[in-house]
Amino acid sequence: MGETYVHGYHRRENERLEDQAGTLVELLHSDTVYPDGSLVLEVGCGVGAQTVTLARRSPNARFVSVDVSADSVAEARRSATEAGLTNVGFQAADVFALPFTTASFDHVFVCFVLEHVSGPAEALASLDRLLKPGGTITVIEGDHGSAYFHPDSAAAHAAIRSQIALQLEAGGNALIGRQLYPLMIDAGFDVVRVNPRMVYVDSSRPDLVDGFTRKTFTAMIEGVRDSAIAAGLIEPERFDAGVHDLFRTTESDGVFCYTFFKGVGEKMHT
Ligand SMILES: C[S@@+](CC[C@H](N)C(=O)[O-])C[C@H]1O[C@@H](n2cnc3c(N)ncnc32)[C@H](O)[C@@H]1O
Fold first, then answer.
1. Second label for 107, Cα 20 to 30 Å away, from 53, 81, 154, 242?
2. Rounded to whole angstroms, how far apart are CA atoms 177 and 262?
């Protein structure tokens, strides 16, 4: 992906991913536990924000976590070491050229990665090949079209749309959550279940106001300001008003909603 990747490589973005992972752990991962002795491939582990949760929840499973960015892999390895994890191995690898043999993993886990690749269907098909028959794949993605809030704001929606357009220009898809089911079926998984996981935030949940609305979603939109303006997708004043209005939803009378999609596919065929 290199230069075309919209977010993920900078310190602030890494902190954002860690805030996101910390805030959403229960919502996204409470039902992800792997059996003792199983071998799990995590693709696009980034700086290890989900890896630590996954490996802690399944201490007797073994994880191989890969990412196309060698720098992120190094950071992830440091996080896992600091967390005292001994059941994870890391390596740099591209989802489109994974250095593993066919049917070598019991389970595959992919979180917030397909939205950034230009061929999500091909990526899923290659992961299907790496799974043993009877294995599962878990895919978690967001969908920025699912963001709605109070007070509502046309400028905020325009700023969000500029991020969606930018990600599309980079070959990704910020609306991929709603497509998980057909993508997973087309990739060849035999049984697929997709569950929406809604984040609902009002001021009675200050941890989510800070961790999700402010530091995850609004920070992500704010982070594309210069690129979106440079690409001519939005005027600076409009973008700034939109970000202001997103922060406005974090006040005592504000509300913010967003839906993630978690798909689990089973491979029954050989
Ligand atoms: C938004 S981050 C998510 C990281 C992590 N899964 C998490 O949830 O915190 C997306 C990650 O996908 C990785 N990525 C993008 N394209 C990739 C590819 N072709 N192969 C492997 N990883 C890729 C990026 O380097 C980045 O670390």
1. 81
2. 8
Extended beta strands in the chain, E state: 39-43, 62-67, 88-92, 105-111, 131-141, 148-150, 191-202, 255-266
Report pLDDT digits (tens) over 105-138.
999 999 999 999 999 999 999 999 999 999 999 9
The pTM (predicted TM-score) of the whole model is: 0.92
Pocket test for ligand 1, best of 64, 113, 115, 176 (most atoms within 8 A of CB): 113
Between the CA of 46 and the centroid of ligand 1 the distance, in Å, is: 5
Is 155 a pocket residue for ligand 1 (Cβ < 6 Å)?
no
Ligand 1 pocket: which of 12, 28, 65, 67 to mutate (most atoms <8 Å of CB)? 67
Q: What is the DSSP letter of 133?
A: E
